[in-house]
Amino acid sequence: MNDMLKLLLQHKIVAILRGIEDRDADAAAQALIDGGIHMMEITMNTEGAAAMIERWRTKFDGKAAVGAGTVIDVALAEQAVAAGAQYLISPNLDEDVIAFGRERGISVWPGVMTPTEIVKAWKAGADAVKIFPMGTLGIGYLQEIRGPLNDIPMIATGGVDLHNIADYFKAGANAVGMGSKLVNLQWIREGKFDLVTERARQFVEAVRDL
After folding, report:
1. Using CA atoms, how far apart are residues 137 and 141, in angstroms rounded to an integer?
2. Which domain holds residue 97?
3. 41 part of the active site
4. Residue 70, C-beta contacts closer than 8 angstroms, at least 6 positions apart
5. For the chain, how many structural domains are there in total?
6. In the predicted model, is pLDDT for residue 210 greater than 90?
7. Percent of the chain with pLDDT over 90
């Protein structure tokens, strides 16, 4: 098992930073780390994503693993890896991106929905898959596919909140990807980083014994 997958299964939460402004990014990341978050992804459709990934790799080395999100093709994978991304997450399944990651020893966690896509991603070499859009599919869906597909690590992304996070894990999620419910951009823009830390702490606490 590679290091990133180990971290994912241990810490269970990936914070998704989409649309964050460069000037707020470092303080936001620090606030998440202070709250106990150990895995953060910056989506590649965020302006300046590559520069932020590069900076975070130095600034938060040893404190948090930094990945790239919304890596929909190999061109974006190349940019992300050149910037130092430690893992790649996509909303879609692109087998070329998985192959690109495997050649370089970098974990790729593609976005999949159907059982066919899940198995296809696994056979292509993904060591975990992102079930997306989970908020629309619902927890019952995850529970049903888990039965026959019990060996594949699954990250549930979408719809996770404090009141239902335990249900996601009961339904079979190994980890969750969390955007706005964890990373409140309004608080970040207003400099309320203590609220960001407190929210992170609540989620970390919620998954500790799951």
Report:
1. 6
2. 3-202
3. yes
4. 18, 43, 44, 45, 76, 89, 90, 91
5. 1
6. no
7. 99
HSE on the CB side for 5, CA within 13 Å? 16
Query: Is 12 among the residues known to form the active site?
Result: no
Q: What is the DSSP string of 13-65?
A: EEEEE-S--HHHHHHHHHHHHHTT--EEEEETTSTTHHHHHHHHHHHTTTT-E
63, 95, 130, 190: which one is catalytic? 130
Asked whether residue 148 is assigned to any structural domain, the reply reads yes
Assign 163 a pLDDT band (cuts: 50, 70, 90).
very high
3-state secondary structure of 200: helix
Catalytic residue among 12, 41, 78, 170: 41
Confidence of residue 209 (pLDDT cuts 50, 70, 90): confident
- Give residue for tokens 């908020």: 135
Within a domain: residue 210? no
Kindly state the DSSP code that residue 68 receives in the 8-state scheme: E
